[in-house]
Amino acid sequence: MITNTITPNLSYCLRQKTLTALLVLTAAVAHPCIAQNQTYTIDVSKASIKIKNELKLGGRAKNGDQISVNNYYISRNNKAIIPITGEFHFSRYPEQYWEESIKKMKAGGINMIATYVFWNIHEEEEGKFDFSGDKNLRKFISLCAKNDILAIVRIGPFCHGEIRNGGLPDWILSKPFSIRSNDPGYLHYAEVLYNQIGKQLKGLYYKDGGPIIGIQIENEYQHSAAPWGLTYPGQPYDFTAAEQDQAATHEGVSVADENNPFADAGNKHMKILKSLAQGAGMDVPIYTVTGWGNAAVIPNESLPVTAGYAYPTWVPKAELSPFYLYKNLHQSPDYSPVRYVPTDYPAFAAELGSGIMNTYTRRPLVPANSMDALINRCLGGGANGIGYYMYHGGSTPTGNHYFFSDEAYGAPKISYDFQAPIGEYGQVKPSFHRLKLLHFFINDFADLLAPMVTTLPANNAEIKPNNLSTLRFAVRSANGSGFLFLNNFQDNIPNTDKKGISIRIKTDKNELRIPFTGTFNLKAEENAIFPFQLSINGTILSYATAQLLLKGDDPQHPYYVFFSPDGVVPEFSFINNSLKVSSISNATINTTKQRVLVRCASAGPAEFSISNGNQTTRILLVDKKTATEAYEVMLNGKKTVVFSNALILPEQSGTPQQNSITVLGESTYNLKVYPKIAAKPSISSGKLSAIASDPIFASYQAELPNISLSPDYSSANSRKLAVKLPEQLPAGLNDIFLDINYTADTGMGFLNGELVTDHLFRGTPWEIGLKRFAGRNSTKEMSFYFRPITKDAVYLPDLDPQLATKIRKSAPIVKVDKVSYRLEYQSVIKF
Questions:
Q1: Among 22-26, 70-74, 135-139, 774-778, which is the least confidently predicted range?
Q2: With the CA atoms of 821, 822, 827 and 831 taken in that order, what torsion angle do they form, in degrees rounded to the nearest 10?
Q3: Could you read off the pLDDT of 89-108 as tens digits, one per residue?
Q4: Helix (H, G, I), strand (E, B) or coil at 575
Q5: Does residue 693 carry a pLDDT above 90?
Q6: Which of 396, 456, 634, 751 has the most crowded Cβ, counting Cβ within 10 A?
Q7: What separation in angstroms does the CA of 422 have from each of 133, 296, 385, 552, 748?
Q8: Is the pLDDT reported for residue 777 higher than 70?
Q9: CB–CB of 63/92 below 8 Å?
């Protein structure tokens, strides 16, 4: 299901026009006009990297599968890979829906899941460990294995994650030792915790044929901490850090210039924790540590990962982020300085803010197109691993004695939606679809991209976040072949279209111009990746003003899929070495002795074949919107692309159902299958009709039996709302989303007097998935309480400016404008 984002997008557009007025004025003064029709140049002829294999990382599975790590990338069976890690906290989501969510993450291109083991959730009372129900770590990792997705387990002891005390149990505060230190008393309890986690994970490690490829030791050690939950209103934060580290402890992720005199002790502590983890059986190829902001590492034995939060809530107001400017991340990680030599390790940007957790005092709205712009920038900067915090939201459980959420920082009591690509209730958001475009590309072309070196334009250091006139671009290349990265997004400031662009790239073999003649445009808030000197089964693609999406896996009938970025006229320039181009659909061809130029309509779709005498390869071009509707499925053992305005969840490969797909969405949806198939599929309910006129795809329209449902609700007063819950979901539905469009300070939802959901107002509807609540304990209704928003609310600068102005001029407001249902249908199609 694709959620309705009209309100958020409108809010963001309005906010761009008025938010951060001083920054906008500064940009206008520094750059009074936007350059047009400009040729940019970049020299990649000296691009090279010295590969070293000196890290004590890597491992082998019992089936011979092997992971190795050099100073630039990770390899699996001697083939470079780029991990795409999505954070998903199993203890924040109902156990019965874990597998559905893992399938959604895999459908979005995620190839590895990271999850925290929050100590206080599993041992709320000393000596009483609980790994049952929603806390069943072993079951969660087993489901990752079942669905062929790797895992990184973040074992603490300290985690943060907006959990009370950062995951440390309250009772440990009473112990006579220094926490997060080398005190033997603390290390004893850390060892007890690790032994309990080790029992849960036994047999699930990579060496055993399981999915656990990595273990993260601690989190932000000697950099950040959480406030203790045992506090008083107005009291300064008392951070969960060793006494010796308090002076160097930061609130949130930030740059740390301090020279910590206890750095050696910190690195030693990390090494001790690693040995305790290994002693508990946690033997994995990769041990990760958070390496940003001078945090402690395990030199040569751990992989320091980096972060990037463009919309942080731990700063007092919105700022222009540096994370949309290209830089060489292998040489200069974000949040530098760091406590390691960056060029000795791969650049793994493993904690990128795909959204942000709002707090009571800060409520930024993160636009969907900020997320893929951030990933484009990281990849262009040399990142050979990317990860999202969070990729899947959730709901923080309630303990026996207190809320587990980080109340001291003003986090919601329950909601941990994080504005993530997959939300708190499993709802798929626009960012999910935009990020797919990069994930599919990475998964299919990592072996090409990972060894490529970043080159920046000569003037790159002069580009600042408020510079909106100069094109932001970078190149990754190796042996004269590479990818051109372009980014035209900057947060919290109005962006501008870039028109009349051409790029000259000088390689060690030749110089090429993109495009060969003329120019291209790049729309505001968009980004793109163009290949050059790319070998497609022996045919050299000099360049394309289209972005690679994916490729087929059938060597007998190969195909490549591209998409055209919005506003860009797509063209493909091939070296004419006895090249034949045929089967042209919606494309024109121009041939000279040196090259063959194929130009396609931006709207697409277009298809053509290239043949060099040895191999014929089909090329499919679609527009960007269609590309965001792409899913990879296995039909008859071959990778097939299904384009749909619904969500496609393939079955795991190797099962009898591998020729079927589960579809979630509206009651009517479309399917386009590529390569085209002849067999007519069947649907589990409703009607599936073939569209015979499509020359490129096998196209179908599905019509499911319509279900008529609307919420039954009542209001006792402006602050109180009661919604009757369905006793169970009607057959054919996967979920019912209750949308509450309201204006107030906060909203709280109760079942049987228990707080089960809450929401910090930020100008967007409150979405609640009801399937987890329907029929629960014979509950008949969910009741809501809203608190008024006042003219002096500290978070008003984060809201839509027009709304904030209205609130400042009004008496306290609490108003529910609309209560509605959105139905998510479920069907199964068999091919």
A1: 22-26
A2: 170
A3: 999 999 999 999 999 999 99
A4: strand
A5: no
A6: 396
A7: 22, 31, 20, 27, 21
A8: no
A9: no
| Domains of the chain from N-terminus onward | 80-447 (3.20.20.80), 631-665+668-703 (no CATH), 712-830 (2.60.120)
Rounded CA separation 38/42 (Å): 13
Output the pLDDT for position 754.
Answer: 95
pLDDT for 431 beyond 60: yes
Helices (H), 108-202: 119-122, 137-146, 184-201
In angstroms, the CA 395 to CA 426 distance is 11
Task: State phi, psi for 323 to the nearest 5 degrees.
Answer: -80, 5
Whether a cis peptide bond, with omega within 30° of 0, leads into 337 is: yes
When computed from its CA atoms, the radius of gyration of the chain, rounded to whole angstroms, is 27
Asked if residue 436 has pLDDT above 80, the reply is yes
Indicate the pTM of the whole model: 0.95
Residues 6+ apart with CB under 8 A from 663: 644, 646, 647, 648, 649, 669, 702, 826, 827, 828, 829
Lookup result for tokens 């980004």: 527
User: Is the separation of the CB atoms in 659 and 830 below 8 Å?
Assistant: yes
Residue with tokens 């009651």: 667
Q: What distance in Å separates the CA atoms of residue 517 and residue 748, rounded to the nearest whole number?
A: 59
Burial zone of 242 (CB within 10 Å; 0-12 exposed, 13-18 middle, 19+ buried) = buried
How much is the pLDDT for 676? Answer: 94
d(CA 82, CA 110): 11
371 upstream amide cis, omega within 30 of 0: no
Closest CA to 94 of 687, 735, 778, 628: 735
Question: What's the pLDDT at 810?
Answer: 94
- The C-alpha atoms of residue 219 and residue 289 are separated, in whole angstroms, by 7
Type of residue numbered 746? T
Report residue 654's pLDDT band, with 50, 70 and 90 as the boundaries.
Answer: low
Cβ–Cβ < 8 Å for 44, 477: yes
Q: Give the residue carrying structure tokens 């291209």.
A: 520
Q: Which of 315, 322, 309 is nearest to 489 (CA)?
A: 322
Distance CA 376, CA 385 (A): 12
Res. 652 pLDDT band, cuts 50 70 90: low
> What values do phi and psi take at 397, rounded to 5?
-70, 160
- Smallest Cα–Cα separation from 574: which of 544, 600, 549? 544
Average pLDDT value for the chain: 93
User: Cα–Cα distance between 44 and 765 in angstroms, integer?
Assistant: 48
